[in-house]
Amino acid sequence: MAIEAWFMDGSDGDQRLPHHRSPPEFVSLDHLADVGVLYWKLNPTDYENDEELRKIREARGYNYMDLLDLCPEKVDNYEQKLKNFYTEHIHGDEEIRYCLEGSGYFDVRDKEDRWIRIWIKPGDLIVLPAGIYHRFTLDTSNYIKLMRLFVGEPVWTAFNRPQEDHPARKQYARILTEKVGVALAAH
């Protein structure tokens, strides 16, 4: 089954709830690809030996990997960290996340500045392009185990909105305007 994504409602309720519009408006993989979000469905139970993951990492240059458990029992200042992750921001590099266990939401802005909520579950690997406005939160399960991938040394710097003059944001906006395609197809 492909990843689930939808346009969010405008409510300010608990960030861990789905926030579907009424009626729900689902977003296709093609729409996600149009804003630069890539997606693969992999086997999270054998990630150490997954040939498809190896090929993706090799093709895209992801040579650094670590694992992160996010839940109240394993993260100091859990509520504050979750609040920080949920602040709208960009990065100067891609954000690559592979869900191994649990679930959570990545929210991204589309070309019309609407929030799209992407629900990641075990096996979902997503790549958010550098410069895209986004945020992250757990869902009501309050648990996710993520693999984080990077090109080179990990960079954790988030630049909170507004960042229209940041080089990564300018490049992202240019690509959206020119409708440049993504080189590596995802599925």
From TrEMBL:
Sequence positions that bind Fe(2+): H89, H91, E95, H134
The EC number(s) this enzyme carries: 1.13.11.54, 1.13.11.53
Main location, first listed in the record: membrane
GO cellular component: cytoplasm; nucleus; plasma membrane
Single GO term (MF): acireductone dioxygenase [iron(II)-requiring] activity
Keywords carried by this UniProt record: Amino-acid biosynthesis, Cytoplasm, Dioxygenase, Iron, Metal-binding, Methionine biosynthesis, Nickel, Nucleus, Oxidoreductase
EC class name: oxidoreductase
UniProt remark on cofactor binding: Binds either 1 Fe or Ni cation per monomer. Iron-binding promotes an acireductone dioxygenase reaction producing 2-keto-4-methylthiobutyrate, while nickel-binding promotes an acireductone dioxygenase reaction producing 3-(methylsulfanyl)propanoate.
Residue sites binding Ni(2+) per the record: H89, H91, E95, H134
Membrane topology: Peripheral membrane protein
Cofactor requirement: Fe(2+); Ni(2+)
Keyword Chloroplast: no
Pathway: Amino-acid biosynthesis; L-methionine biosynthesis via salvage pathway; L-methionine from S-methyl-5-thio-alpha-D-ribose 1-phosphate: step 5/6
Catalysed reactions, semicolon-separated: 1,2-dihydroxy-5-(methylsulfanyl)pent-1-en-3-one + O2 = 3-(methylsulfanyl)propanoate + CO + formate + 2 H(+); 1,2-dihydroxy-5-(methylsulfanyl)pent-1-en-3-one + O2 = 4-methylsulfanyl-2-oxobutanoate + formate + 2 H(+)
Localization in the cell: Cell membrane; Cytoplasm; Nucleus
Pfam assignment, any one: ARD
BP terms from Gene Ontology: L-methionine salvage from methylthioadenosine
Family note: Belongs to the acireductone dioxygenase (ARD) family.
Described function: Catalyzes 2 different reactions between oxygen and the acireductone 1,2-dihydroxy-3-keto-5-methylthiopentene (DHK-MTPene) depending upon the metal bound in the active site. Fe-containing acireductone dioxygenase (Fe-ARD) produces formate and 2-keto-4-methylthiobutyrate (KMTB), the alpha-ketoacid precursor of methionine in the methionine recycle pathway. Ni-containing acireductone dioxygenase (Ni-ARD) produces methylthiopropionate, carbon monoxide and formate, and does not lie on the methionine recycle pathway.
Name assigned to this protein: Acireductone dioxygenase
Species, as recorded: Rhodamnia argentea
Gene designation: LOC115743125
